């Protein structure tokens, strides 16, 4: 067995796009297939508006925050909820009180297809 860390102590601060108080701990990258990381949002944090580089699934695992896609209002998310952006879709995210998010990126992601096949309702 091997042990690894992805807590805030090993995160890299995100500063692009006017981002503040947020960092990422990379978890795994399979070139050209999938990349997974853990985003750590502090209080009053923001990942600034930018286009998605590939399909992106944003899974809130702790805390609460918000997301917004281009042309939409802010949508609040809590632990157990997720957002999905298509390649090139402009978006931003943040938190007033802090949240932890697992982000999965890859060209073949299609969470809606699986949810429909399992008969699960989308939020």
Automatic annotation (TrEMBL):
Identification of the protein by name: Cupin
Taxonomy, superkingdom: Bacteria
SUPFAM superfamilies for this protein: RmlC-like cupins
InterPro entries hit by this protein: RmlC-like_jellyroll (IPR014710), RmlC_Cupin_sf (IPR011051)
């Amino acid at each position: 067995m091997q042990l690894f860390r992805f807590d805030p102590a090993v995160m890299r601060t995100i500063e692009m796009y006017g981002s503040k108080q947020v960092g990422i701990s990379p978890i795994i990258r399979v070139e050209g297939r999938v990349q997974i990381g853990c985003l750590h949002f502090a209080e009053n944090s923001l990942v600034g508006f930018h286009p998605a580089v590939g399909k992106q699934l944003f899974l809130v695992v702790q805390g609460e925050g918000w997301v917004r896609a281009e042309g939409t209002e802010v949508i609040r998310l809590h632990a157990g909820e997720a957002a999905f952006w298509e390649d090139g879709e402009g978006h931003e995210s943040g938190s007033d009180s802090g949240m932890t998010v697992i982000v999965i990126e890859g060209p073949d992601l299609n969470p809606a297809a699986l949810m429909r096949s399992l008969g699960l309702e989308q939020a």
